[in-house]
């Protein structure tokens, strides 16, 4: 069985972070492992507190995983400080990690920056060059290129620029009132659009975590980049369309939409 590691924060409400990553990896057919960068107290209405892991403890988690069950892919989500970013980069180099997917979580849905400028610079200098693919949304891409993105042509140019700068594939995620959830992948000198249909729902908590984890799962299974992205987009579209209505704010999607009830009934009938 292929294995994937998520390096990210914990979401106590289960919709995003490592909880979303582990659910996504599991239902996409890989064995999921985690190294936690921070604990959060949060629900569908927001984050009330954060307890960050120390760089030393994060290193111990990474060493424990890599020295025992070596991952076939690594997904990296929100990492809030330079010290943690530096440890991740150093350990990935040390272990020669492969199929690295970096979701550069830098901007909240409200538009507020989630990282200090020095941490953003450390991401760019230390972690991005190690990535096989970056998955920024439009506000994050605007930070990386230093200008606004207002058209599909701007998206194409931004993805090409980011890909060239960090020598990796770049999947620039649409939405944010620019297009109908279409994403643009620039890899190995070529660009490709992946069309998506915007799902009419407010329950979109954890979409970025889920998409990047699904891509990592598919890369772990050996799919080429464009196929890994296509399969990941299909998965997240179905998870959103399946619909959940949990919590008082922006709720989670249904990561387990494809777990069939009849399978559960079969197992219930077995005498283990």
UniProtKB/TrEMBL annotation:
Keyword Ligase carried by entry: no
Keyword list, A-Z: Kinase, Thiamine biosynthesis, Transferase
Gene3D superfamilies hit by this protein: 3.40.1190.20
InterPro entries linked to this entry: HMP/HMP-P_kinase_dom, PM/HMP-P_kinase-1, Ribokinase-like
Catalytic activity line of the entry: 4-amino-2-methyl-5-(phosphooxymethyl)pyrimidine + ATP = 4-amino-2-methyl-5-(diphosphooxymethyl)pyrimidine + ADP; 4-amino-5-hydroxymethyl-2-methylpyrimidine + ATP = 4-amino-2-methyl-5-(phosphooxymethyl)pyrimidine + ADP + H(+)
CDD domains: HMPP_kinase (cd01169)
Pyridoxamine kinase/Phosphomethylpyrimidine kinase domain residues: 11-254
Claim: NADP is one of the keywords in the record: no
Gene Ontology molecular function: hydroxymethylpyrimidine kinase activity; phosphomethylpyrimidine kinase activity
E.C. designation(s): 2.7.1.49, 2.7.4.7
Pathway: Cofactor biosynthesis; thiamine diphosphate biosynthesis; 4-amino-2-methyl-5-diphosphomethylpyrimidine from 5-amino-1-(5-phospho-D-ribosyl)imidazole: step 3/3; Cofactor biosynthesis; thiamine diphosphate biosynthesis; 4-amino-2-methyl-5-diphosphomethylpyrimidine from 5-amino-1-(5-phospho-D-ribosyl)imidazole: step 2/3
NCBIfam families listed in its UniProt record: HMP-P_kinase
Annotated family: Belongs to the ThiD family.
Protein name per the record: Hydroxymethylpyrimidine/phosphomethylpyrimidine kinase
Species of the source: Anaerococcus kampingae
Gene symbol of the encoding locus: thiD
């Amino acid at each position: 069985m292929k294995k994937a590691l998520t390096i990210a924060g914990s979401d106590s409400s289960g919709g995003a972070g490592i909880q979303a990553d582990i659910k996504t990896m599991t239902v996409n057919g890989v064995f999921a492992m985690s190294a936690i960068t921070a604990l959060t107290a949060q629900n569908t209405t927001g984050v009330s507190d954060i307890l960050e892991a120390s760089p030393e403890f994060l290193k111990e988690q990474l060493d424990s995983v890599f020295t025992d069950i070596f991952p076939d892919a690594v997904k990296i989500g929100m990492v809030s400080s330079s010290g943690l970013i530096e440890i991740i980069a150093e350990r990935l180099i040390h272990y020669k990690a492969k199929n690295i997917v970096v979701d550069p979580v830098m901007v909240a849905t409200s538009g507020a920056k989630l990282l200090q400028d020095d941490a953003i610079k450390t991401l760019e200098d230390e972690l991005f060059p190690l990535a096989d693919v970056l998955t920024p949304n439009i506000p994050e891409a605007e930070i990386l290129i230093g200008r606004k993105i207002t058209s599909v042509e701007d998206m194409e140019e931004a993805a090409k620029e980011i890909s060239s700068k960090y020598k990796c594939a770049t999947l620039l995620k649409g939405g944010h009132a620019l297009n109908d959830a279409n994403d643009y992948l620039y890899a190995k000198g070529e660009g490709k659009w992946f069309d998506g249909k915007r799902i009419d729902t407010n329950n979109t908590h954890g979409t970025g975590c889920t998409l990047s984890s699904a891509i990592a799962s598919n890369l772990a299974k050996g799919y080429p980049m464009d196929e890994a992205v296509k399969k990941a987009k299909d998965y997240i579209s179905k998870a959103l369309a399946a619909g959940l209505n949990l919590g008082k704010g922006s709720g989670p999607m249904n990561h387990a939409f494809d777990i069939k009830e009849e399978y559960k009934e079969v197992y219930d009938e077995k005498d283990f």
